[in-house]
Batch of 2 targets.
Target 1
Amino acid sequence: MSDICIVYDRVRWEEKELSEKAIQLGHTAKLIDGKTLSVSTHDGTVSNGFGDIVLQRCVSHYRGLYITACLEFLDMKVINSYSVAEVCGNKLLTSLYLSKANVPTPKTHFAFGPETAADVAGKLGYPVVLKPIVGSWGRMVIPVRDRDVMDSMIEMREEMPNPLSKIYYIQDYVERPPRDIRTIVAGDKVVTAIYRYSAEGEWRTNIARGGKAEPCPITNELEDICIKASKAVGGGVLGVDLMEDEKQGLVVHEVNNTVEFKGASSVSTKDIAAEIINYAAKMAR
Amino acid sequence: MKVNCKECDKELSAPDDAVKGEIVTCPDCGSDFEIVSVSDKKVELKPAEKVGEDWGE
């Protein structure tokens, strides 16, 4: 039996499910609001009450990331670790880590100035996909179909106050069916896989954008790529997203750190929350 | 569990198994609220944090 702590900043379906499942499986579970935490470099008392292992479930990437840094400073085990959260929370770093580990990914290019970004896109040939390096739920992920749109996007991003908007992440447009694959990996196990179909009038497949889920078979190839991708970023509980590229085959385009699994649970025969809790309990030992 | 919206005062419901930290939305004005406490079938609300640029998976 383990004492499992779930740190949240808003309790979604997933956090309730994890908490209830932990108790059903004979563990103790505690939900702690990350917004109420404070940590001092000279006071380790916050470590009391966090149990054997912490599941970091904050919806705010930076809040989750820095709470994890503080908890690790206090020698607590956190899923996922700071280094994994840092890599997965940044699309540029994720692409670098995946590519370094020879995980198949869409061809991705980085540019560090507006003129260079326009040149890179022009040389690649339109359409290209422009993504923010930090962000989720498909926000600001734009298919850029010609030079005019690229110039407008660059102008807009140069006006944004966030310095990260001036780092350009440009990806080849992948010709694929109107779906992608979301897998949930816990440690060295692919727990489940689903197809996510784009909603009507939407090209992105995110469930948060109204995408619909269907079960997807876990083939040996899919399993191998997902485990490789998970290891490439440091491992843990991760959502590995793939596309079926008509030219390259399966390519990993994203690895999610605080994976949402309500949509996957609605069609999967696997008990995703139970698998995550089992992994957490194993890591707590 | 019924509670009045802090924005428009219309009645909104929280699920019976609601827990602290969960978000409820007023069906009338669309405002989001975070459940601060649940006791004796009563819920207390505060305005929910706005969705941030870094929110998501």
Target 2
Amino acid sequence: MAYKVIVCAKQVPDTNVIRIDPKTGTLIRQGVPSILNPDDANALEGALTLKDRYPGSTVTVVTMGPPQAKDILIEAIAMGADKGVLLTDRAVGGSDTWATSNALAGVIQYLGNFDILIGGRQAIDGDTAQVGPQIAEKLGIPQVTYVEGLEIEEDGRTVLAKRQLEDGYETVEVALPCMLTCVKELNEPRYMTYAGIFDEEMDEKIITLSATDVNLDPAIVGLKASPTNVFRSFTPKPKGRGIMLDGSDEKELATRLLVNLKAKHVI
Amino acid sequence: MNRFEEYKDIWVFAEQRDGKLANVALELIGEGRRLSRDMERNTKVYAILAGTQEDVDSLAKECFEYGADGVISLQHPLLKQYTTDAYTKALTELIIQRKPEIVIYGATHIGRDLAPRIAARVNTGLTADCTHLDVNLDKYVDYANKNTTLDTSKIDPASDDGGLKMTRPAFGGNLMATIICPNTRPQMSTVRPGVMQRLERDPQADGEVEVVVPQLEEKDIRVKVLEVIKSAKEMVSLTDADIICSGGRGLGGPEGFELMRRFAEKTGGVVGASRAAVDSGWIDHSHQVGQTGTTVKPKIYFACGISGAIQHLAGMQTSDIIVAINKDPDAPIFTVADFGIVGDLYKVVPTIINLWDDAEELYETDLRRQ
């Protein structure tokens, strides 16, 4: 068996290195690198593992964003993906999750048949985890979220997935085609290969599409079509430094702490 | 005339598993009641149960006791276990038929699977992982002035349309955004467990339960649940804990969590962990506190060897008292700590454990000295 696998991925700012300017209280975005969203890297690894196991399978990575989002497609191809597709258009800018899923579902339909759609559980900039299920709904296919284990059963047309729960997991079975969103416990993403980075056909492997290329209805994509709007955005107020305890040894420090906790009636 | 006239009341998805209500369901009923007081047209709070008759019949009373005005109980043998397909179908049909103004769900592994699917089917907006909700603009401004850096002087109080203002963290907690859903109904959000306040239980409370049997068939359910495994690992209920003893990279290795367990045992708390410690494989992810883990607000949060990455701070800074123990005096954790100790946690924590039972005595002695 061979499978057509589509990976949904997003380029995100590395939120681990974002800092807040202590004077203005605003985000310092300068110098913050853009990366392939971490959960999406696990999704890509999941797709590449299937390709390794089922020769003849293809892995296409789909993303939406500004022209520089192409960088994550280059990275994905250097890891082993066959093809990258970038939807870039002002018409889709400012989309919320509902409008984003309409746009991505449109691209996926444009690309034709597929067996497995896979993406990360959520992106680290928005943390919503909504786009995966909403694409599945728009395409009318079943979904499994929080996937931490993935196999294809002997019949070749059924996915056996382990779905993470707060206090354990469940094993579920779903027929292809389906949408899977995965968590980092699924696997360890591979590195890019030297040959992959210097792939001579890199340019041919990446397609850039506009909203009109894929025939998107302007009434369901972009900022204006989005049912949710940002009313205000701001930074949380820092809590403020408390008391640093002094003491000549651990016993004195621990005593001061316990006395203070008693005084606050919390113990 | 209000163009959303037909849409009325607040619905809370009262998540249950195996006939046990999720804590967040009760928290959301409490939050629904708080919101309903600021709404017109005699807005009521309905708990929406879904499951088999056997599992949900006994839960309606609990919903009333925690403040629900009404309960709609979706009952069907095919709702025994949570499945995206069956729950989406049952709830979507009810929403389209009854037109609630607001629907809120717990941001659990079930709520975050279900709510986006419903929102896409109903074609309305959904805001994920909210930590604060308001319908009244004046109250929103009060909240913003107290807790945020937002310049509220530019908000015109007369502009309030009574819509739901849904506030959530983004960019790993670096940024907060308030989201509105002005043009579609219902307004929907998932809400982080452990953030909202449940009401005082009223054992006398009771009310009318409306049972609805949704149209469901086997073929509607495309994802089949083969088995549900509760992990043998200890159950961690970080959101309910009064005391959390949390460890980070500064523990130096998995053995550090042995000390955290002793600490938790002595203080009657539970063990938490930073993402760094979880990612290092020192402890299971169910212990993780922070933006991608659980939001907590215990009475005391002990941060041991935790530097205080912004994501971690986002998940614990509303704790009543934060105690930070770290070798590095410049660790960001000290900027949110009520009490900071610069020192070796392997010396400080065992000493706290040893002296814990003497706290009362130490306090009395200290009072006499003053």
